[in-house]
Amino acid sequence: MQATGKVGLFGAAGAAGQITGAALSAAGRDYRVVGRSRAPLEAAFGHDPHAEIVTWNPDDPASISAAAAGLQTVIYLVGVPYDQFASHPPLMQKTLDGVTAAGVERFILIGTVYPYGRARSNPINEDHPREPHTFKGKMRLEQEKLVLAAHGRASGSTSLSTLVLRLPDFYGHCIERSLINGIFEGAAHGKRAQVIGPVDVPHEFIYLPDIGPVVEKLTRTPEAYGRWWHLAGTGTITQREVARQAYALAGREPKLMVAGKTLLRVFGLFNPIMRELVEMNYLMTEPVVLDDSALTQLIGPIAKTSYKDGIRQAFDAARAAASANMDTQRDAAKTA
Q1: Is-contact 7 73, C-beta < 8 A?
Q2: With bands split at pLDDT 50, 70 and 90, how would you rate the model's confidence at 111?
Q3: What is the pLDDT of residue 202?
Q4: Which of 62, 86, 207, 249 is the most buried (most CB within 10 A)?
Q5: Ranges for the NAD-dependent epimerase/dehydratase domain (predicted)?
Q6: Strands 161-166 and 203-207
Q7: Which of 217, 156, 257, 201 is nearest to 24 (CA)?
Q8: Residue 207 near residue 170, CB atoms below 8 Å
């Protein structure tokens, strides 16, 4: 593995960006965090002397190139609203053009299982066909194609190398976009958790802090580029079992409100995000489980947090957040 230059996290303010930044910092590496607004970046990274904070406008080619100037590697974590997936490919094309013009050498896209469509068998390796049957899967596939087509693209004396790291659903400390975050919040508050069903089908999750060291290692593994890789969780677990363990930590019996496909359609009449969840509900009934043996052969053993430990840590974080919120409310009441 090679020592590398500075890394930039594009779309850094989210949970995956913060986890990756922490891994880079732990390795003693300077990095740049890039986002539309400075305030959330300051809140997430302002304490870290290794972090340089930069804002960008991803619709402005000059802004993209300026944000990428001086970087060796860009890690792309840019999200879009769930009902705006059509913006993924054009946003990626603009970013690739900008980072190539800036002389970036390596580009990593943190991807999903959406481009595969339905799994032909489980677990699947990287040879599985990419045949998405959903609009979101097709948009993610177009995004990936752009990234992989840019591999080998030259600008001046430098050439861009690209890869895609594909993840299953994730969970961790107070991650609102996690499929199972509601379970931890419900357990911490002693309330009914809202979940998307069915809840008794085994599903794969990855504990998000586990991805940071892997991504950091890939930034200095030149032989990894030019293809996509899987990073799997620690097997599968049902949402009901996650709830059983989380509520047990709170000394309570699980309480769930389950929204299946039919109920999602009803909710979708009033909530566009809920409406967008309907087409992806197949992943709840026909989950995709990843085989990451190829990545393990490339970079060596990968440390992974067990479901038992990950659930405990996610619950502890939700309980601490709930306690802090109660303290804030009490202080506000005293000064009212």
Answers
A1: yes
A2: very high
A3: 97
A4: 207
A5: 10-213
A6: unpaired
A7: 217
A8: yes
